[in-house]
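Let us practice reading a record.
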Amino acid sequence: MPCGREAEARAFYAGLLGMTELPKPAALAPRGGCWFASGSAVLHLGVEEPFSPARKAHPALLVEELDALEAALTAAGRACVRADGEIPGVRRFHAHDPFGNRVEFQQADQ
């Protein structure tokens, strides 16, 4: 993530996605960035200068209510791209965080 944009990270990952922010260890806190968790998933956003978003490599997060999450992201102005049918038994879509990083959301097909 870019330097100094932790508030945007918190608004997206904690506010919109409902993840819990984890405190960074005191030795790492001065470097900036944010850590988040949800269930067994832990996501570390580190500061990079110069910053270049991850547009291909990305985390895939398992969710329980894929359609509700897609609706919430769309309502918040985040474009979602459906990618159904490419992985048997999995419904999924991609969106981008405030910094242009790709994030995938998956749910088992029922």
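A brief commentary: The CA atoms of residues 89 and 109 lie 5 Å apart.
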